[in-house]
């Protein structure tokens, strides 16, 4: 009864150990900590700073030009007789 459960736990531990590069114990934890720190400083933090700078630039641009036109609603489409409207085309006459 308990043997199958213990075997499953052992298999899970060995799978996790192998997926982490085969390192065990403190060296594995330390290598993951170093990798996570490098990933944060090389990818995550620069992208957050870039996003923050873009938001600041957009806020400054919006504040500096208070008379700038800003679209507040979607434009209403213009129905055209010869446009890309499919279906009943009543009123369209062919020239002879």
TrEMBL record:
Disordered: region residues: 74-96
Transmembrane segments: 25-44
Entry keyword set: Membrane, Transmembrane, Transmembrane helix
UniProt name for this protein: Uncharacterized protein
